[in-house]
Amino acid sequence: MSGNHNQSLERALAIVDAAADAGAHAIKLQTYTADTMTLNLDHGEFHIEHPLWGGQSLYALYQQAYTPWEWHEPIFKRAYDRGMFAFSTPFDKSAVDFLESLQVPAYKIASFENTDLPLLRKVAATGKPLLISTGMATLAELDESVRAVRQAGCKELVLLKCTSAYPANQRDSHIRTIPHMRELFSCEVGLSDHTLGIGAAVAAVALGATVIEKHFTLSRADGGVDAAFSLEPTEFAQLCKEVKNAWEALGEINYGVMDTELNSHMFRRSLYVVQDMEKGEQFTEGNVRAIRPGKGLAPKYLDIVYGKTARQFISKGTPLSWDLLW
């Protein structure tokens, strides 16, 4: 949801309902205040220069985007009532303590905090499943973070491949990293996707991603801090459908005829007698051909059949079998 509630609890609850209707399994908030994120200054590095959020201070942006803490409980309740998990991204220790009081089932660490080892250890010590976005992290930093959370008690870890650009370009997604990351860190891997559309997410699932995170809004036209790179309900429903299709299509390593192919198997080519043949007549290109359907001998035996003779009279349209040959 991020800040797409636009400071309206009614809209936040409507987002939960729309996400559930679209097929989401979970909804995630962000738990912070402007004061826990930064200082109330508007000069130098505290002033934002960014295509989406520029022209204001960091403090003003976070005041606009934050989800009031008293909203968390009703939002979580609505999500549970709609059959979804609900959890959050804490940005400091006080947020972790608050979320623990709400008995959240899991936590997520944002890319900008993935090197904040004290915060990571605090979250990991809860013993809850932990998702970590990997945006901007070097391999060394990521290794350090993973070691820290595992040593602090994290047993269920998901790393989310992420490009920390808003919106992100598909060419910068580098989702080929997903299977490498899975092998390197022996954990589940997903995609926190800031690209426009659903292509990167579907491709990520094909590479083994088991979690997809997307920003979600009721309507981009309504505006909001993250609306420009958020999916609308119909788009999110399409995402849910296509990533499920991609997941199911992965299947397993398989060769040969499947049960669902048995009817189609009949339409392979095979050897048929294409002219009436008398007993003792020689098989030639003129009276035997590889045609559909597939009830006769396989076409690979055609050179063996040529030169043989008919054991009996054979009518046109008879599938060839070994017992018809001398």
From TrEMBL:
<dbReference type="GO" id="GO:0047444">
    <property type="term" value="F:N-acylneuraminate-9-phosphate synthase activity"/>
</dbReference>
<dbReference type="InterPro" id="IPR013132">
    <property type="entry name" value="PseI/NeuA/B-like_N"/>
</dbReference>
<dbReference type="Pfam" id="PF08666">
    <property type="entry name" value="SAF"/>
</dbReference>
<dbReference type="InterPro" id="IPR020030">
    <property type="entry name" value="Pseudaminic_synth_PseI"/>
</dbReference>
<dbReference type="InterPro" id="IPR051690">
    <property type="entry name" value="PseI-like"/>
</dbReference>
<dbReference type="GO" id="GO:0016051">
    <property type="term" value="P:carbohydrate biosynthetic process"/>
</dbReference>
<protein>
    <submittedName>
        <fullName>Pseudaminic acid synthase</fullName>
        <ecNumber>2.5.1.97</ecNumber>
    </submittedName>
</protein>
<dbReference type="Pfam" id="PF03102">
    <property type="entry name" value="NeuB"/>
</dbReference>
<keyword id="KW-0808">Transferase</keyword>
<dbReference type="InterPro" id="IPR013785">
    <property type="entry name" value="Aldolase_TIM"/>
</dbReference>
<dbReference type="InterPro" id="IPR057736">
    <property type="entry name" value="SAF_PseI/NeuA/NeuB"/>
</dbReference>
<feature type="domain" description="AFP-like">
    <location>
        <begin position="270"/>
        <end position="326"/>
    </location>
</feature>
<dbReference type="InterPro" id="IPR006190">
    <property type="entry name" value="SAF_AFP_Neu5Ac"/>
</dbReference>
<dbReference type="InterPro" id="IPR036732">
    <property type="entry name" value="AFP_Neu5c_C_sf"/>
</dbReference>
<dbReference type="InterPro" id="IPR013974">
    <property type="entry name" value="SAF"/>
</dbReference>
